[in-house]
Amino acid sequence: MIPKKSEINSIKSELQSDILPETDQAIRKFVTLKAELNEFSQQLESAELEAISEALTIQQYNQEHNKNNIVYQDSVAKVVLCFRQKYASSKDSTELARLEEDIRAEEVSLMKRNGLKLRKLDEQISELEEQIRQLEERKEKLTQSKRIAALQARYQRIIADSAYKVPNLVVHFKK
Asked: Is residue 14 over pLDDT 80?
């Protein structure tokens, strides 16, 4: 018979309490602080939206007197209103979407009209790439030796031998 999830959780909690009675205090504290941080982050996002609205009002009122866009200043902090450039995408603008379609259609038309010339250019590019590959192989042969290979292998071995793991905690909050 397969045990129910509640039975498994009950057994786990019993085992944890029997084996490690007080070792989960630091973990519990960590999870509690993470939960508080998560809640605080949500409050911070909300407060930031309100602060931006207020800062825009202040900036409009003091526009001619305040060249640096400083909207708040005290002994703790100085708050400067900054603007990041954002652009519309084709998802947001039907005009941009139509222009993208027009560009693609024009590209297809040009490829059809100049197909033979483009194929010849592609062939020339392929030939030149092959020549470059051959020259790089010759260069590689001139710059490699058994000693360099041995030193590189030793270098990689030392790096692999000196590897270590750093512990990290991942917390998933239940909603």
From this structure: no
Question: Is the Cβ–Cβ distance between 68 and 80 less than 8 Å?
Answer: yes
- Nearest in space to 54 (alpha carbons), one of 41, 40, 39, 72: 72
Q: What are the φ/ψ torsions at residue 164 (nearest 5 degrees)?
A: -145, 160
Report DSSP state, residue 74.
-
What tokens were used for 120? 């010849």
pTM for the whole thing?
Answer: 0.49
Residue 157 tokens read as 């071995």
Q: Which residues contact 16 (CB under 8 A, 6 or more apart)?
A: 24
Tell me how far apart the alpha carbons of residues 3 and 1 are, in angstroms, rounded to a whole number. 6
Residues 6+ apart with CB under 8 A from 33: none
